[in-house]
Write a structure and sequence with these properties.
The structure is a homotetramer of 195-residue chains. The first copy, chain A, contains nine helices and no strands. The longest helix of chain A is centred in the C-terminal third of the chain and has 28 residues. Chain A is elongated. The N and C termini of chain A lie far apart (74 Å). Chains A and B meet through helix 7, helix 8 and helix 9 of A and helix 1, helix 6, helix 7, helix 8 and helix 9 of B. Chain A binds a DNA duplex (21 and 21 nucleotides) through helix 1 and helix 3.
DNA sequence: GATGAATGAGTATTCATTCAT
DNA sequence: CATGAATGAATACTCATTCAT
């Protein structure tokens, strides 16, 4: 009878938008960006093609939203380093977070590794990606410094590369022993301390 | 003029074929598979669209030929492990080969990381890729075993992941300190020995 | 607050309706019928898309209402011929009225020339337009007859065509010497008389 | 067997291109630009939709080609004024050409009057149109000068407006007495001479 | 009355592929 | 062998219109 309130509309919009993003991400991850059509996305989401354009001006903008959402989620997953009394424990917890992330957001990471590498997309996101990578390196560097390790930056770089490489392999090999590798790495880290 | 011999024809065909493969590979690397059209390839190769179909039954088959050619080239790049008396030296030399390869064939690796990740291609080559990865792990495992390290397989896995992760980062960041990272890794490997 | 009376409601409805018509007419004039969307009209009018359908059953019906409103306005603009004792003076005054109209309602005529010619509209209004044209011809014919000119109908036709052609040129050329042309025509008309 | 020659291809292209332009112009004239779809044009021309894009990059470019072709045809129809010994005869022949043009190219003129007035299109072609109009006025002015008439430019302007107005009326009224009007105008022109 | 989310038929455009010559 | 005109199925996107609230 009475028209919907602003809040009601806002809630509807949020729900629809998130639904589209989620469905599209899964499809892009599974079949690729170019091979997933707007029609397919709409069908998977049980909505009309047109609705997608109520939320995203183009397929490319939808992709952008997915990537942005993904980055935001990663940021949330990797909470700011807690200035703990025990920096080594902090680092271990950091690494565990990454692995947990790999496990719980497998679809996103698959999507991410696949999408980010496509030339046109790479061109657009190379800069933010580089920035993101630098920030991670700095963060890890600082942690290593606080443990008084020699060559903290190189140590940080190898750890970052190692983690990304594991993500990469995990996608190629669905039987990847993620937990074993995680424990091995953490074990090594702790052992070094006691050295 | 005497008619061309069977061999001459065959040679011409091969040359044409290789030319198409080379041109298409460059276009795919620069702009992606889906965003490069047969018309573009034909234009770049200075031939007609129709002629491409004399050599490849479809665009997909052309892609397949490109990938196969690429794999063959990788095989040539990575020389067979020399069974040395000093396994640790062998390993160091292996790692150095990889880094050298990264440096001298940067464009090629960029192309490969980009191409291999595209879903359609990934689907087809996930299996061979997984096999290739396994072989590398086994190879490294064996080397680690011969140095009597504990957890040789996990050690192999982390090293492989580390090397791939570095390749990944090197593509993202054109200022990547490849040499520093290489020396750091090798130095660590040797240090461990003396522990 | 007492409930609004029936009349108040009716007045509100009329005002809303007229507002929509006015906004839509401006948009159609500026950007054309097909290139102006209901969404744009609603936005320009500061109302919702749905509301437009409370007043007009379809976009086409809205157009129809605009045209009808426009015709009514034209009727108001062109005052009925004053049956003067001096038909030639009447004719001169008629012509002067048209030119004055062209000058003071330039935007309106521009809109009308543009709108009337669009096929969809033309189809609907070709008949009324033809009728309107015929009436004008008859009116002018009668005037010419009363001045005892030979071929009054053809004279009327050429005068009508001349006036429309001038309107057309005036729209194309913003520097059109409307006054000079007007004086020239009227001067000729008077001269002929004295012949 | 042997491939087609360059000339053969050129001939095919010419034929196809002209066919598309001709069919599209008729459809645009009959139903309007926006209401005629590429699919309709293709169907009317008995070709595939795709073929149209082999010749025109977009619907708008097709429209452009039609208009340019039309202008070119008009130019051919209105041959450069022959410096005759009898300028009045020249003028009569000019006028006769225009009327003949109206009759034989009715479809184009219908299209032209309808299309040119649409806002977006008008914006694009207002300038060339104005230029074209100016040229015609100058041409007619010169002719009038050579007959030693007073106010040659105004005379030229009224004649041009008259001719365009007649074109306009002819489109509105399919029973327009084109021949009568033509004879009347020419008759008047000759009479003036003898005055 | 009033809102704007949702629909779906329709549109321009692309492009791998075929084929007559 | 080689050409490029022609095809047609697929795709992204638009927009008038509906309808639950």
């Amino acid at each position: 009878m009475s028209p919907r309130t602003e809040n009601q509309f806002e809630a509807m919009r949020m729900k629809s938008r998130e639904n589209i993003i989620s469905v599209a991400m899964n499809l892009f991850a599974a079949n690729g960006y170019h091979t997933s059509s707007i029609a397919q996305i709409a069908k998977s989401a049980n909505i009309s093609k047109g609705l997608i354009y109520n939320y995203f001006a183009s397929k490319e903008e939808l992709l952008d939203a997915i990537i942005k959402t993904g980055f935001a989620e990663i940021d949330q997953m990797l909470p700011p380093v807690i200035e703990s009394e025990n920096p080594r424990a902090t680092m271990v917890s950091e690494i565990e977070t990454v692995f947990q992330n790999y496990q719980s957001n497998f679809e996103f990471w698959k999507f991410y590794f696949q999408i980010i590498m496509q030339p046109k997309i790479f061109e657009i996101y190379a800069q933010p990606l580089k920035t993101f990578l630098s920030e991670q390196i700095v963060k890890l560097s600082d942690l290593f410094k606080s443990i008084c390790v020699s060559h903290p930056e190189l140590k940080a770089r190898t750890l970052a590369a190692l983690l990304d490489g594991i993500g990469f392999h995990m996608i190629i090999d669905e039987d990847y022993p993620l937990d074993d590798v995680k424990n091995f790495i953490i074990h090594n880290l702790i052992q070094e301390e006691q050295k």
